[in-house]
Structure formats: structure tokens, C-alpha cells
Amino acid sequence: VMTCLQQIEPNLVPGGILIIDDYEAWSGCKSAVDEYFSGREDDFEFVQQSRLHIIRK
Q1: Positive or negative: CA dihedral 14, 16, 47, 53
Q2: What order do you get walking across the sheet with 44-48 strand by strand?
Q3: Residue 33 has what pLDDT?
């Protein structure tokens, strides 16, 4: 998950949405996402639906 975030997030355009499917289902996924985006909450909006949607502001 961390490797995917490192490759995808830098290419996410403003308004782009990154959907994390297993955020609540797999603790390793949640840990990686939380660690990667820690301290960057001002740059992204996090919307919890059936999956986690991360939107670049």
C-alpha cells in the first residue's frame, strides 16, 4: 500500500480522487494510509463512505 501511495499520490491533480478500498477492512492498509498522509490534512479532504476517498484540494 505504501509503495502504491508513493507512486500515485504525487500525480494526483487538484480535485483528483484516490479511492482506498480496504481502508477499514485491513489494518495494514489503514496504517499505511494514516502514516503516509500524517500531517498533510490541509492538502487533502478525507471522505469515509463504503471506501475511503482522498481528494487533493
Answers
A1: negative
A2: 17-20, 52-56, 44-48
A3: 98
